[in-house]
Amino acid sequence: MGEIADKTKGNANKAIGAAKSAAGKATGNDKLRAEGEAQKIKGDAQKAKGAIKGAFGNKV
Predict the structure, then answer these.
(1) How many Å apart are CA 55 and CA 47, to the nearest integer?
(2) Which helix (H) or strand (E) holds 36?
(3) Residue 56: what pLDDT?
(4) CA torsion 46→50→52→47, rounded to 10°?
(5) In which element (H, E) is residue 41 found?
(6) Is residue 44 within 8 Å of 14, Cβ to Cβ?
(7) Among 1, 7, 12, 44, which residue carries the largest CB count within 10 Å?
(8) In degrees, to the nearest 5, what angle opens at C-alpha 21 toward C-alphas 13 and 15?
């Protein structure tokens, strides 16, 4: 995957994670909230991976 694809997937995971986390918090579902938090972290990692690829010209 390239820089843009990684950053796009990262943003999507952050958004979905935030929605899951909010839904879990609103309904008192700790498992859903935790899943959302984990997905947000995954999104941050994907975005960082994309940034690194961008800095090295997608050769990583």
Answers:
(1) 12
(2) helix 30-55
(3) 87
(4) -40
(5) helix 30-55
(6) yes
(7) 7
(8) 25
Instruction: Please report the pLDDT score of residue 11 as a whole number.
Output: 96
CB 34 within 8 A of CB 40: no
Residue 11 structure tokens: 């943003």
CA 10, 16, 32, 23: dihedral to nearest 10 degrees?
150
Task: Say what the pLDDT of residue 40 is.
Answer: 97
Spatial contact of 38 and 17, defined as CB atoms under 8 Å apart: yes
Tens digits of per-residue pLDDT, 8-36?
A: 999 999 999 999 999 999 999 999 999 99
Longest dimension (CA), the chain: 44
